[in-house]
Design brief:
The chain contains three helices and 18 strands. By secondary structure, it is α+β, with helices and mostly antiparallel strands.
């Protein structure tokens, strides 16, 4: 007995909806696993002396936060200024929806560093999720090692923690505080003051892991132009001294980031990753 054409069309439509939904859910799971960069974005990068700055913490992409960071996850919030390093009380950490924020009070003029460090967290990932995340988030060396070792079908448990900075220029006088190391497990330290540079110049940054230079580290950089357009993300490798060179080809808000991941033996996890980002503005 043949099925009427109307019924066949309805069945095809139901199957299409199920397939689309399933595919979308799979894509979302992989995307959630991969898209979890973290950036500190002040509401202003050029600030007057003795002024308040609200710093947003985006946990997702440079433009959109996928979820907030709960206060117990926060290990350290620091501000380095001409007055020295001040550790902020994490009770000032605010969570609203998908975004975390905190307030910084500036003092005298200088180039300030605002830093946030999170406690480690563990995430289990399927082989598909983990491989997709390695590919999309800038971990080609780990992906190559899994390919070489025939481990692409292996799931992974990852311990990760994130360490982020923003550089803020307060007043007209630049200072050397921009190069202050905060002692985070992963850290990006500018060699030159970004606020002494302009579009078309090259910024050198030092990549550190556990306080030591990270040679041959894969580094990504990009951002948004002053008009809101996208500064295309590009990559560079650090040299043997851990220094990466970033051409500042546009005015706007920039980020530099890297993830240092290493396999772990004799632990409850397979890998540990240490994330570092820094944001600043090019006039």
């Amino acid at each position: 007995m043949s099925v009427p054409s109307t019924a066949r069309a309805q069945r095809r439509q139901r199957l299409w909806r199920v397939a689309t939904l399933t595919g979308g859910m799979m894509f979302a799971v992989v995307s959630i696993a991969a898209a979890h960069d973290m950036f500190a974005k002040p509401d202003r990068f050029f600030v007057a002396e003795n002024a308040a700055v609200i710093v947003r913490v985006l946990n997702g992409t440079f433009s959109v936060s996928s979820n907030s960071i709960a206060r117990p996850r926060v290990q350290d919030v620091s501000v380095v200024s001409p007055a020295g390093r001040a550790r902020l009380d994490t009770s000032a950490w605010s969570v609203a929806g998908d975004t975390s924020t905190f307030r910084v009070q500036t003092g005298t003029a200088g180039t300030y560093v605002v830093g946030v460090s999170t406690r480690p967290n563990v995430i289990p990932l399927t082989a598909e999720q983990f491989n997709g995340y390695l590919k999309s988030d800038g971990l080609p060396d780990v992906l190559a090692a899994r390919t070489r070792d025939g481990a692409l079908n292996n799931p992974a448990r990852e311990r990760y923690h994130k360490h982020i900075k923003a550089l803020i220029q307060v007043g007209q006088t630049r200072s050397e505080h921009f190069s202050t190391a905060l002692g985070y497990p992963a850290e990006i330290i500018p060699v030159e003051n970004p606020y002494a540079l302009s579009r078309g110049k090259t910024l050198s940054v030092r990549t550190l892991v556990d306080g030591a230079p990270a040679g041959n580290q894969y580094v990504l950089y990009g951002g948004r132009t002053s008009s809101g357009g996208r500064i295309e993300q590009r990559s560079v490798r650090s040299d043997e001294a851990g220094v990466a060179r970033i051409p500042l080809r546009a005015s706007g808000t920039w980020y530099i980031k890297f993830i240092h991941m290493a396999p772990i033996q004799g632990d409850t996890v397979d890998y540990e990753s240490k994330w570092a980002t820094v944001t600043f503005r090019v006039p």
